[in-house]
Amino acid sequence: MSLSYHVLWGHLMNDNETENGNVPTVLRGLVLLETMVSDGGSSTPTELNRKLGFAKPSIHRLCRTLEQEEFLVRDIDGRRLSPGPRAQRLATALLSSTDLRAARQAILTKLSEEIGETCNLSLPNIDGMLYWDRVETRWPLRIHLPIGSHVPLYCTASGKMYLSSLPKMYLDSYLNSTILERRARNTITDAAVLESHLAQIRQNGFSLDNEEFIDGMVALAVPIRDATGRFCATLSFHAPNQRVDLKTAETYVDRLRRSADGISQLMIGQISGPQDDPEL
Q1: Looking at the chain, which residues constitute the CATH 3.30.450.40 domain(s)?
Q2: What's the rounded mean pLDDT across residues 56-78?
Q3: Tens digits of per-residue pLDDT, 206-227?
Q4: Topology at the third CATH level for domain 5-84
Q5: pLDDT value at position 16?
Q6: 3-state DSSP assignment of residue 218
Q7: Which of 36, 219, 278, 280 maximizes the CB count within 10 A of its CB?
Q8: What are the residues facing 222 on neighbouring strands?
Q9: Nearest to 64 by CA among 2, 120, 141
């Protein structure tokens, strides 16, 4: 870690106690992160400051300090900043609080019992999708991807769902910089074909993995959205294709969407648990 906590605190406290009369110094980092994610998760210091109105030296110093401490990371273009690994770990920890996890697990368990397969929640991470929570199928034949696993974006149902949500500029950057390595018999290794595939996912509102990540495995993912309707996570299931083919997988879309809506409402605090939704 590049700076100790007391040095980070000192950097944040170098300015006056408040700026514009309403943002205490100790809150500026949190306000900056909140503004960044509300704008889509990637911004330049100048873009952030149009909303925050901090002194120009303050915004650049704050961004630099947060980047050094891994709360922010610099994008491929070298100008824009995005939430870094420490911010993502903080978000995951908050979402994994005991009460919220119990309610979320109830939704996952009910969904898994309805469709009879392993159900997963995944979050976008710096190097792929992170398996954040799951409920295993009761079938002895299963594909084991434990909580904490990282999987690629371009060849998984959850990863492709995320890629389909990206603005064109960021998707183009990803496609131009990523080696589409073959992982299974049907992995898409051509960037133009993958881009067309993602456009179809965007139109359908769900994503399929047809033996693209692991031979013999199919999967389907739907988005979980935040209070503003933006993508923030995925709900998916995966299964051996000996048990579930793609046509059968698609019949589960509505069930996954209802469950994703329930989890979304939990995350934004609109309901107290899955029992409040008669559909779940």
Answers
A1: 96-276
A2: 82
A3: 999 999 999 999 999 999 998 7
A4: Arc Repressor Mutant, subunit A (1.10.10)
A5: 42
A6: strand
A7: 219
A8: 235
A9: 2
